[in-house]
Model the fold of this input.
Amino acid sequence: ARDNLNNPNNRTTSAEKKGRIFSLFSIVQFPNDACRSTSGTFTNGTCYTAQECSSKGGSSTGNCAAGFGVCCIFQVSATSSNIRENCTYITNPSYPSNYVPTSIPTTVTYTINKSQNDVCRIRLDYDQFVLDGPTATSTANVATSGQCATDRLTMTTTDRTNTPATGAAATYGQYPYICGTNTGYHSYLDLSCTSTDSATLSFVIGSTTSNQWNIKVTQYSCNDDYVSCQQGCFQYHTGITGTIQSYNFVGSQQLAGQNYKNCIRQEEGYCCIQYSVISYNIGGGGANAITICTIGGIGGANRCTGASLCSMDMIIIPGAGQTPTGNPGTTGENYERFCGLNLNALGFPAVNSPIISCECPFELDHITGIEALNGIGFTSLVPDPLMVAPLPSVPQGFQLSYSQIAGSC
Done:
């Protein structure tokens, strides 16, 4: 055995050893999965080799893939930036400081391009989102109450180009605008199957204060289990239980110009869903004092439900009822539109009561007046003799918990 080891034909040269070691490491491969970064500002990154991260313009913040890779962070802030990497962070110029534009109003835009051809959903996580709030609700601002008139974020995609407008001739967009405080919220944008489809985020800034954002952009394949199978879900919630709230709920004022859908993924073995109130004040729901409902009745109305009374500001819950089979008793009425100060399947009495729906997919729409909360001509700020109790001056919006109900569908 000793002679065999000393045989020159069996010896391994130093050069050969280096070659073999190089070959060993050259075949190490790992998926470019999401990873947890060591950054205190940006939570997630993508696992790449150090060389790949550098060539793509990223920053290494921690290791991944058992040390063979680095957790690569991508971040943009300058206006007109183009995003091509999954899990990229969009921050305001001068972040984490407040953005102070040299002139106002000004617009800061970002274009999100597909990171791979089969991407069909973009998720925006608002890790920080603070803009000026909407126009205050007051007798002086009746026609524009709730509009994002000073600051706002608008969103478009290649095939959804209509943006909401503010002012006296306000319009809905294919995605709503957002303003105020929305840290911790999220939104989804739909992309077509075309590989060149893209999305654009536009921040319209009209003041030098409250201009901070840090948004994580995640792109999902149409085949991803986490992605909603239906289009049009501006918010998409998963889990047996959770919380849904209107945008700027923390800012304590509902936004005008909202027209979007919350979707809740139906979990396996669950057939119905129950919504319970944490906080609820949608507002009157109509365009004038006669059609604005209040709990207790107005002009003969004894409810805050249905299309005739909830015509402008509302939430819509398809298949809503007190029980899985609807509203029991003698009323024979089932409503899907809800407004007012309390959430109740019947619209009265003045008490919040859980609402159950067994209609799939689970959805909850939020719609508010195009020009203003409660529509142009909102007069509930002025006491009306027909009103049992005038509405509060500031509709806050809603915060609901949901819980899916198990059963055999």
Q: What stands out?
A: Helices lie at 2-6, 14-26, 50-55. The first strand starts at residue 34 and ends at 36. The two ends are 73 Å apart (CA to CA).
